[in-house]
UniProtKB/TrEMBL annotation:
This is LysR family transcriptional regulator. SUPFAM superfamilies: Periplasmic binding protein-like II, Winged helix' DNA-binding domain. Belongs to the LysR transcriptional regulatory family. Keywords: DNA-binding, Transcription, Transcription regulation. The keyword Plastid does not apply. InterPro entries: LysR_HTH_N (IPR000847), LysR_subst-bd (IPR005119), WH-like_DNA-bd_sf (IPR036388), WH_DNA-bd_sf (IPR036390). The keyword Nucleotide-binding does not apply. Gene3D superfamilies: 3.40.190.290, Winged helix-like DNA-binding domain superfamily/Winged helix DNA-binding domain (1.10.10.10). Residues 6-63 form the HTH lysR-type domain. The lineage of its organism: Bacteria, Bacillati, Actinomycetota, Actinomycetes, Pseudonocardiales.
């Protein structure tokens, strides 16, 4: 009997094919190739001795047997999700521990305050914060290595649920002696694109936001002059007069007030962005992770 039991990934694939009507889209949702998904589906059909999907040029559609199996599969997957939520709750209760990951801007200016507020309400709670870029935060959340993550990427990565927790905007900043600081008119986006800049590393939310902004404008971009993996290093490089940079406004606010940096206006570009909490899609936050999200939402609304 055990030899005929299908694996969970095959059941997820079948359910997605039924929902999306496309094997290719289902494969994309599961982050696998279409040929690999096709082989997995064929293996499932062989294991169950049933034809589950009717494949044609118009797409992939469940057969009557496929629809019946999908209904049972959905119940199985829901039970598995409930199992994992319960296990997570038991683990959280036993360890009284919350593991968090956050991108640079959130970790420097938002998350510590939220953790402090949570710990005042939950004596004995131990929280650990890992500071990395948005791409890595998303990976940690997907692998279940953290209870909750916080990112500043312009889009929500696949297979993650999200909730807005703060707002931010990017700022173009230069040394006070830079020619842009002396201008009376705004800098055009095309000129920004053609200027070698100080940028954050690939995978950071700030870098992704900048790259997407320039891509939408269909502009040819210059190669970055300097690529750095921290806001502090980027700020220091701009203050030293190395080159302009695009950074979170909250990160450079004190430097602008002190006259160490000058913010430059850019024509016709909305630099506002949303900062988000993320966790695996289909999973419910429990325990301290759920409470931390509530603290962050209240702080955002306040």
């Amino acid at each position: 009997m055990s030899e005929t039991v299908p694996d969970l990934e095959s059941l997820k694939l079948l359910v997605l094919v039924g929902e999306l009507g496309s094997l290719g889209q289902a494969a994309g949702r599961l982050r696998t190739s279409q040929p690999a998904a096709s082989k997995r589906l064929a293996a499932l059909e062989r294991r169950l001795h049933l034809t589950l999907v009717d494949r044609s040029r118009r797409g992939s559609h469940l057969t009557s047997e496929g629809r019946a199996v999908t209904q049972w599969a959905q119940r199985v997957l829901a039970e598995v999700d409930e199992l994992m939520v319960g296990v997570a709750a038991l683990r959280a209760d036993r360890a009284n521990d919350l593991r968090i990951a956050a991108s640079m801007t959130l970790a420097e200016h938002f998350v510590p305050g939220w953790i402090g507020a949570l710990q005042r309400r939950t004596p004995g709670l131990h929280a650990s914060l890992r500071v990395t870029n948005s791409e890595h935060v998303a990976d940690l959340a997907l692998r279940g290595e953290i209870g909750i993550g916080f990112i500043e990427a312009p889009t929500v990565p696949a297979r993650l649920s999200s909730q807005q927790v703060a707002k931010d905007r990017l700022a173009i900043v230069v040394h006070p002696g830079h020619p842009w600081a002396q201008r009376r008119h705004v800098v055009e986006l095309a000129e920004l694109a053609q200027t070698p800049l100080i940028v954050r590393e690939l995978g950071s939310g700030t870098r992704e936001t900048l790259d997407r902004m320039l891509e939408r404008a269909d502009l040819r971009t210059a190669r970055p002059l300097l690529e750095l993996d921290s806001n502090a290093a980027a700020r220091s490089a701009v203050i030293a007069g190395v080159a302009p940079a695009v950074l979170s406004a909250i990160t450079v606010q004190s430097d602008i007030s002190a006259g160490q940096l000058v913010e430059v206006a850019i024509a016709g570009v909305d630099l506002h962005r949303t900062l988000r909490a993320v966790w695996p899609e289909g999973r419910k936050l429990v325990g301290a992770a759920e409470e931390l999200l509530r603290v962050a939402i209240r702080a955002c609304r306040g």
